[in-house]
């Protein structure tokens, strides 16, 4: 298996190192979907939402069973006889320190979502739980368990399947760092033909539209924060200016490269997030937060099996499609992007080291973050009677919650900077991944190609913001979850076949 096409050195001229079928077909489909989503947003919204609803109704069981399988598969591998195999040659060493590695895992895989949903999701489940009465102590505990479930171990097990398969087959067997390589044990050299091209095109579309949607949501939150602090107008015009400004910074980071750009910005991101988290823990209801943290962890672990397999099949509710199944499809559709990026920065780690770190570190951060922000907001609503935190617009709830704490101006400003830095790291890592895929798996393609994709991401976010197509695009991204689930299941089989092919086994 290690005798196949290695990652050659890229030509220095623009677009000479591309995989032409993947590059041009992907670019063409991106343009078509954007024209449809922005120019016919109402029709697109109806179409994609109908597809999403159909998938949830008919294949919800498949999503739930697949996520449960991915989690069990990851746990098995972490303690299997394959756990000490290196993601690279036997004498390879990690390229990045633990701090840099954890920072990049945190920034790429969680990003804007923690800030956007850290307050709003717990509040929503508290007020409107899937079952039972909202606004009670039981509803508060249940809300945090559900939030942990959506952002915890199961989500990261999806990313691990992609990340492990790519890191293993690329760094240990010399295959291209591209999604197609995960299928090598199944189809062999046909990964270099139409089947491989199709898989990579699908990965490019999911990455591009997922990142563009995230960027659109991010600038909405930045605009809301600037309005909260400085009375800046909330408008599409302001949001477009923000996209242009932040995309320009992201482009500079892309040109600087992974080490000088993305790594340093990710480390800044982690530092700012820790500062914000510590402040909330100290300025908020500290004793309550520490108590709920312990209870939340216990509740999450004890109810995990029930939540993993509970489809409410005997009492169907719309909530499942709006939340749990929505999240599972979202994580799956994002897995080519996040999985490939974490593979890119994980050369030299052992299988066990990779699995445990990628599974546990982001989950621990999510647990701490959601407890601090979510339970502070719930405390403001339930115990302090502050209705404003519940009634504020989704993108404004973070700043409304911070408004009830000391140093509001400073913390809100830090929150805005944090969203912007997440924006930059998402754009950076997305551009790096797309550039690698469209260059046939090369990691040293000409920098202008990375700049091209970074600018395209910003342009798509602007186009969809103008056309009102962000919601339609989000539904379209979710619809991609089903076919890629099949690819992930095939990747699990391929990983086992690859590991068993090791000489020592």
Q: Report the portion of residues in β strands.
A: under 5%
Distance between the termini: 15 Å
Number of strands: 0
Mean pLDDT: 88
- Supply the helix-strand structural class: mainly alpha
List the helices and strands in order. HHHHHHHHHHHHHHHHHHHH
Task: State the helix count.
Answer: 20
Tell me the radius of gyration. 22 Å
Overall spatial form: globular
Major sheet:
none
Helix content: over 70%
Uncertain segments of ≥5 residues (pLDDT<50)? 1-12
What does this structure look like?
- The protein is mainly α.
- The N terminus is likely disordered.
- The two termini are 15 Å apart.
- Helix 1 packs across helix 2, helix 9 packs across helix 10 and helix 9 runs antiparallel to helix 19.
Summary, kept brief:
With 505 residues, the protein is mainly α. It has helices at residues 20-39, 41-78, 98-109, 112-117, 120-127, 137-151, 153-171, 184-187, 194-230, 236-283, 286-309, 318-322, 324-344, 351-382, 388-391, 397-402, 408-438, 447-467, 470-479, 481-500. The model is unreliable at 1-12 (pLDDT under 50).
